[in-house]
Sequence to fold (298 residues):
Amino acid sequence: MSRIAYVNGRYQSLSAAHVHIEDRGFQFSDGVYEVCLYLNGKALDFHPHMDRLDRSLLELSITPPMGRRPLGRIMDRLVARNRLRHATLYLQVTRGVAKRDHAFPACPPRPTLVMVARRFDPFALLQRQNSGVHIATLPDGRWSRCDIKSVSLLGNVLAKQAAKDAGADEAWMLDSDGLVTEGASTTAWIVQSDGTLRTRQLGNDILPGITRQVIMEIARENDLAIIEEPFTPADAHGAQEAFIASTTAGVMPVIALDGKQIGTGKPGPVSRGLIARHWSHTARETGFHPVQDGLLIL
Ligand code: PDD
Fold:
């Protein structure tokens, strides 16, 4: 079966789906996006993703293309039409099509709305969560509004590729003071020697991650202390554990940074506890639980 995309009101085969060459998303990165996870055909953390989408659109003065409920119905329908049980759903909204001119068009065009669903393998995710990942550090060369989930991702793309070239799975980007901002597509965390979780505070230099928000709630419910302060690679090397977090990576243990082992070099107990609790949260929202579904147990 060929994959089906959604473009401005139409469900089309991926090969036929297209956007206009003068779309401001293509010419100026003038657009925003979300990536949602579907398990058992149900969206995980739907409302937090929609809250962030609304905020990103507001920051760019783009009118939302439609209300949240119809948008959610289209997302669900696209996953169903692609006959996917587990999927990632990529949603992009741009300012729309206009004659090329840097400033916003005086007469706002109709925003472009595009969605693509792709098969997601929770078995592969659990396997990676069991083994952990390697990180490489590099200067954060992105723009100054990383809090907007903007499609201007060239800095992130270059960081991820540099990490890959260095034999790592993810990059941790460093600000001018040598402090970690975040990963190319994940938030960055350490577990200090006293068991406290540490991650950078929200601000213009990081994306307000939905998984970050969920981890904060899990920590609060389980009396785990969190400090929202930046840390250096040296802090990470002195930490018990480290992990990254995102919609598609969940809570993912970090076992090495710049080629040097972190903690025991294996996923540690705090990360594993968070992985289990995050999967419980996922199960409450979607009905999908790795244990019930016979996946490997952490
Ligand atoms: N990335 N930081 C950046 C720069 C990101 O791109 C992402 C998500 C995150 C984690 O946010 P969340 O928990 O809401 O997924 C942090 C998505 C998955 C992507 O671009 O594919």
Observations:
- Residues 35, 156, 182, 185-187, 207, 209-212, 245-248 surround N-(5'-phosphopyridoxyl)-D-alanine (CB under 6 Å).
- DSSP finds eight helices and 15 strands in the chain.
- The chain has a mean pLDDT of 96.
- Residues 269-286 form the longest helix (18 residues).
